[in-house]
Design a protein that fits this description.
DUF2949
């Protein structure tokens, strides 16, 4: 896993309180990291709309 993906997972656990078990479910398709990962979280019902917006904001700040 690349450093950005690792930082994203840390953000999701620390700031959005998403349990590691939930993230592991969404990580089954690791190639989706990090660009499609927010939508996978949304599709699985692991984040609400506000959290999804926070994930996109985080990605905007941390991806070039």
């Amino acid at each position: 896993m690349n450093p950005t993906a690792t930082r994203l997972l840390d953000f999701l656990q620390r700031d959005l309180d998403i349990p590691p078990e939930s993230l592991n479910l969404a990580l089954k398709d690791e190639q989706a990291m990090p660009h499609h990962f927010p939508m996978i979280l949304w599709q699985y019902g692991l984040v609400n709309k506000e959290q999804l917006e926070s994930v996109f904001d985080w990605l905007d700040e941390h991806l070039l």
